Amino acid sequence: MNHLISYDGIPEELIHEKSLLEYFLPVIRADFRVLETSSNLDFKPLHIPVSFFWGENDKVVPMDSVILWMKYFSNEIKLIPIEGGSHMFISAKAKVVAEHLGDILLRQTV
Known about the structure:
mainly alpha, 5 helices, 47% helix, globular
């Protein structure tokens, strides 16, 4: 839990709600297990449109690591930096993320 809290991944109000956190802990652990084991798998790069959201203040995934994601796709990735965003920026920057998602969806329908 301390690891997840260090990512700014849990709202302050929930940090002290032990029963709720324990309920979600198996799911969180499974997510981390997938991340730890999937990097060793063989893969064929996907040819799909990709928009990669990245928090500019992300201390967990620096820009060097973001670039490594390119190997999973055969086409160009559109990097969308989120100003002031940390690793778990989605709730803190929900409006900005929603605006970018709206732009992406509009481009795909035009």
